[in-house]
């Protein structure tokens, strides 16, 4: 069981990710809609990992949020986005992503990415 922060600005996708994680035996420590909220929540809740959308509310970047979480708190991310391409994968490489899952998220792919923490 891991403690996971969900970073997603679309409420229905956030609820779906949360449901997948909880069904997989994980604890969702919170849902953040933008990069600043994600970092503040991560500082407070100390998650083991985050699920991260690429485009967040308030025109903030999931790539920037994931890098900040990794560099400052050691929290790695699974990217859950409809915008996963070679540029995104290359940009994320320096902060050791756990994986990349296309939207809508598939339960098996998302939970498999989180198993890399074990």
TrEMBL record:
Keyword Transcription regulation: yes
Keyword Magnesium among record annotations: no
Domain Response regulatory: 3-118
InterPro entries from the UniProt entry: Bact_response_regulator, CheY-like_superfamily, Sig_transdc_resp-reg_receiver
Keywords of this entry: Phosphoprotein, Transcription, Transcription regulation
Pfam families linked to this entry: Response_reg
GO biological process, one term: phosphorelay signal transduction system
Residues modified to 4-aspartylphosphate: 53
Record-linked PANTHER family: RESPONSE REGULATORY DOMAIN-CONTAINING PROTEIN, STRESS RESPONSE REGULATOR PROTEIN 1
Protein name, per record: Response regulator
